[in-house]
């Protein structure tokens, strides 16, 4: 991790540890020397498959140590020299993960477009499903919550992209993106009643409070859950933190709209307490 450490350490709260950096760079140089020797041997005496394996091994190591530019170049070289369609798709998805890690939207977009082209040529079901998760997560990261939610919820029962994010994080991202735009009927059918979601909610009770109180129209409790969600999940998330204020504002509008629809539909039976709670909470929520 020498390249990545040198990239992130020059900040006031984390001064560069030269001894640690030297140790990391020495270890990285030794391993790269071995990988280069293996690649040279494969090039001189072995076939196309062995050369491809050696190239991928070096590219994967550069990726693990956080050398972005060298890793991208090595992955692209491995992509050129790798014959199998499945292996080529895996390399392109690795490039997308590099983009996610470094926040490079251009790299993510180009890699996902290339992966889609390759999968259309004959990719298997698993890789097609994994691409759906990658594309959905990217959509959420650029504030396209509806498109991202549609893709993520469609992969809810078939998720296998554990190299990108954990299953718990995937379900959380699915719930957060879908509650943003789903109406009560769809929210109940696809999220609240989904066994995959219910399996995770005990570990993430704030998500349960959010969707349950929105669905059951307990707006006072919903706004408390929304404020807690912002502090515990949205702001700590690398993907969601840039959009936290936007998300909170739009969720407030979503709740207002749902309440107004209820008031218009049942003017005599609507809960005045809910209306007052919503009005009071608006004074404390960020604009």
- Amount of helix: over 70%
Name the shape in a single word: elongated
User: Could you state the order of secondary-structure elements as H and E?
Assistant: HHHHHHHHHHHHHHH
User: What portion of residues belong to β-strands?
Assistant: under 5%
Tally of strands:
0
Poorly predicted regions: 283-287
Q: Which structural class best describes the helix and strand composition?
A: mainly alpha
Number of helices: 15
Rg calculated over all Cα atoms: 24 Å
Biggest sheet architecture: none
Q: Can you give the mean pLDDT?
A: 89
Distance linking N and C termini: 41 Å
Defining traits:
287 residues; mainly alpha; 15 helices; 75% helix
Describe this structure in words.
By secondary structure, the chain is mainly alpha-helical. It is built from 15 helices and no strands. Helix 8 (145-154) packs across helix 9 (167-179).
Describe this structure in a few short sentences.
The protein is an all-alpha fold and 287 residues long. Helices cover 75% and strands 0% of the residues.
Write the layout of secondary structure elements.
Elements lengths: L1 H7 L9 H28 L2 H17 L3 H14 L3 H18 L2 H16 L4 H17 L3 H10 L12 H13 L4 H9 L2 H6 L4 H11 L3 H16 L9 H22 L6 H11 L5
Helix pairs in contact: 1-2, 2-3, 3-4, 4-5, 5-6, 5-7, 6-7, 7-8, 8-9, 10-12, 12-13, 13-14
């Amino acid at each position: 991790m020498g390249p990545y450490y040198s990239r992130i350490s020059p900040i006031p709260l984390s001064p560069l540890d030269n001894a640690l950096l030297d140790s990391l760079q020495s270890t990285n140089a030794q391993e790269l020397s071995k990988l280069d020797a293996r690649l040279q041997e494969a090039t001189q005496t072995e076939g196309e498959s062995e050369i491809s394996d050696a190239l991928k091994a070096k590219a994967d190591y550069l990726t693990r140590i956080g050398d972005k530019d060298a890793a991208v170049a090595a992955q692209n070289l491995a992509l050129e020299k790798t014959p199998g369609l499945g292996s080529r798709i895996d390399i392109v998805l690795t490039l997308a993960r590099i983009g996610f890690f470094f926040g490079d939207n251009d790299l993510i977009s180009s890699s996902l477009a290339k992966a889609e082209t390759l999968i259309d040529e004959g990719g298997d079901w698993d890789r097609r499903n994994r691409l759906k998760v990658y594309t959905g997560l990217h959509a959420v990261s650029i504030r396209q919550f509806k498109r991202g939610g549609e893709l993520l919820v469609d992969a809810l029962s078939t998720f296998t992209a554990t190299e990108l994010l954990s299953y718990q994080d995937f379900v959380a991202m699915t719930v957060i993106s879908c509650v943003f735009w789903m109406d009560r009927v769809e929210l109940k059918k696809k999220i609240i009643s989904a066994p995959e979601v219910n399996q995770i909610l005990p570990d993430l009770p704030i998500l349960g409070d959010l969707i349950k109180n929105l669905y059951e129209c307990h707006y006072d409790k919903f706004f408390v859950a929304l404020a807690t969600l912002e502090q515990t999940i949205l702001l700590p998330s690398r993907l969601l933190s840039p959009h936290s204020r936007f998300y909170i504002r739009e969720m407030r509008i979503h709740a207002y709209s749902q309440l107004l629809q209820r008031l218009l539909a049942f003017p005599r039976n609507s809960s005045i307490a809910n209306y007052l709670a919503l009005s009071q909470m608006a004074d404390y929520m960020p604009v």
